[in-house]
Amino acid sequence: MEHDDEVILRPAAEADAEALGALAGEVFDRVAIDYWIEQSFGAINATDWRSRKTASVRAEVAANPENAIVAEAGGRIAGFITTRVDAVTLIGRIRNLAIAREFQGRGLGRRLMQAGRDLMVARGAEYLQIETLETNEKGQALYESFGFREVTRQIHYFMEADQWQPDSR
Known about the structure:
Blueprint: E1 2-4, E2 7-11, H1 17-27, H2 33-41, H3 49-63, E3 68-73, E4 76-85, E5 91-99, H4 108-122, E6 127-130, H5 137-145
Parallel strand pairs: 5-6
Antiparallel strand pairs: 1-2, 2-3, 3-4, 4-5
Helix pairs in contact: 1-3, 2-3
């Protein structure tokens, strides 16, 4: 797809699913909702946030590798982006963007964002969407630098089911 220094961008393959999932588990601390749930509640049913994030990305890429782009350097994964385009609304959604720590700060996120945008537009996207947590300041700055505008903020609530206290009003 594209070359720059030693990093190559290429379409993902189903065989990349395991490595992409592992990378997500390495770099999504403090920027994944499951990380913050774990900070308050501990591991959920004996699964930590990393294993859940890893499994989620692995399943997404294995099912639809054509929606992901991989950044590779020297035969190892340096980063990736996963996307999806809704066929009805034509909203292209960036689902995951991950850069290995040793490759952060080199413009690789920008390259993957551009490649992801190009992929979604080629698949008919007329609008683009990405979500992040307030704790992801680097991501917010990156997204805004492309022209994304904050629309609203979302509050995530979580509880143990046996702690349910229905309002008796």
